Please model this.
Amino acid sequence: MTHLTYLEAAVVGLIQGVTELFPISSLGHNVLLPALVGGTWEADLNVARPESPYLAYIVGLHVATAIALLIYFWRDWVRIIKGFFASIGHVIRPEDGTSRWQLQSADQKLAWLIIVATIPVGLVGLKFEHEFRVLFGKPIRAAIFLIINGLILLAGELFRRKASLQADQEIAQERELVAVGGARPPGTAKHASGHQAERAAEYSLGVESDRRLAMQGYLSAFLIGAAQILALLAGISRDGVAMVAGMFRGLSREDAARFAFLLATPVILAAGVLKVPDLMGPLGNGIRGQVLVGSLLSGVGAYLSVRFLVKYFRTRTLTPFAIYCIVVGLGSVIYLGFVR
Model:
């Protein structure tokens, strides 16, 4: 791994940060890129090699991606974490002398929904993450799974449930009424600067979304979280399958995207933290400067991506990403299987 150049580290870091949040699979791209470029890139960046330092490197970049998410959603996470601690030990005692645990706010409920949704992918990832990535981290397999990812996204849009479509319409109608009334988003100062007003408006919309998310049941949260297990396959997007699962459970596209981004934060942070010790050991010898460069670019790419996607999914669909995955996947299969 001492042959990892700064150019390779920079390109991989930027791709990791951007594609981790776009529903097009970061691991799939980081497996395909070296094979498509060939030469020293293919030799240096081989994720399928047992005990691959490249695998430790790209998973270690998840820390930077997660930090970018925490920075963007920091006020939301403060609310959610406060809700979690407020919920612990909150027991009500009715007049009949019994006692039961009861959540009192949307933030408390959302905190526990995120925990429930994180359990399945956390358990499977801890047990089988290495085996999945080595077994399915072959370029041709990543290309095939990228095609499958595109088909999942396309199916998610073509066969959306009526409840999900209705949720989109209700949100649009509510915002149209607010716009007609000329109301400012709560928390927006009257003379706030453009950037401050924009961030306050974003936060207000996030609070509204969280209230809607808190109305879903624990089974829905578990199923949406379990869908992320598919992302252990190089080529399948964690956020993409979580969004499709959310829409299948009746969430609006906007709320499904937000829940996917919130779920991604603890998952990718945990994955990255688990790999950091590897990079601090022998696997990191000679590449720590490259790791720093890649991490900085990964964090910047992730922040800009989530800022764009939060707005994008309020009015637009997964279809362009589906087409991209299918085209790139098919092109990669043809090139790797028949041309090269």
